[in-house]
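Listing S7. Sequence submitted for prediction.
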Amino acid sequence: MVTAVSIKNLSFSYDKTKTRILSGMNIDLKAGTVTAVLGANGVGKTTLLYILLGLYTPVEGEIRFFDKPGTHYTNDRIKRLIGMVSQNETMPFDLSVSAYVLLGRAPHMGLLSMPGQTDLTCAEDALATVGMTHMADMGINRLSSGERQLVHVARTLAQAPDILLLDEPCSHLDLINSRQMLSMMKAIAERGRTVVFTTHDPNAAATVADQVMLMKKGELVAFGKVEDTITSPLLTKTYGGIVNVTHTPHGPFVRAV
C-alpha cells in the first residue's frame, strides 16, 4: 500500500526559544485510510494539521507526501494535493450552496478563468457525496450548523485533494449528523483518498478510524490500530484521568470514570 504521508522526527514550536508544541513525532499514513488524531483540547492536534497543510514550518524533521519531500511541492500543487475543513469555517458572502462548493475548484482554475464542465461536475459530485444536492440552490446563510458543516466538506471535496484534513468535524453536529459525517469519511477513504481528522472523542475515533494517534502535550503517546490504541491504560495516560473501555460486538465503547 502506498504511503501518502510520512512524518519523521517532527518537532514544532511557535517560537524556537520556547517549549515545543510538537516533539519527536514519527508516523506513516497509508493512502486510502482514515486516521484519527485523538487527545484532549490544546495538545497540538490542530497544529499538526496546519503543519501538514504547509501553514506552519517544522523546527526539526521532515514531511513527505507520496514519497516526495513536502518542499518538493509548489504552493499551487499543495492546494490541489491537500484539502482542509477547519473548525470555524466562515461564509462571508450570501452565495448559493452550489456556488460556494464551486469555490473549491479555485486551485484548478486560472485567476480569471470561468468554471468549465469538469469543475461543475466535480462540484455536483461533491454535493452528492455529502447528501446536499437537494439544497444546491439554497443560500448558505439559511443552513443549519450541521448543514453548513456538510457543505464545507463538499467544497473541500470539490477541490479533489488526495489528502483530506478535518479539524473536529463532528464538534457542532447532532447524533445523526455526526454518524453521517463519520460514515462519509470512511466512504471517502474507500475511494482512495487519505483522511486525517482530529477529535477529543475516543468513540468517534473507534467508530471509523483505521489507525489512531494518541497525543498528549505535543507528544505521541501511541499510534496504531484501534484495538491497540483504544485501551484503558493508553487513554488514561492520554487524558490524565481514569478511562474505561468496554468491548462490545460493535467495537470498543469508552467512558470516563
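Caption to Listing S7: primary sequence and predicted C-alpha cells for the chain studied. The mean pLDDT is 90. The chain has nine helices and twelve strands.
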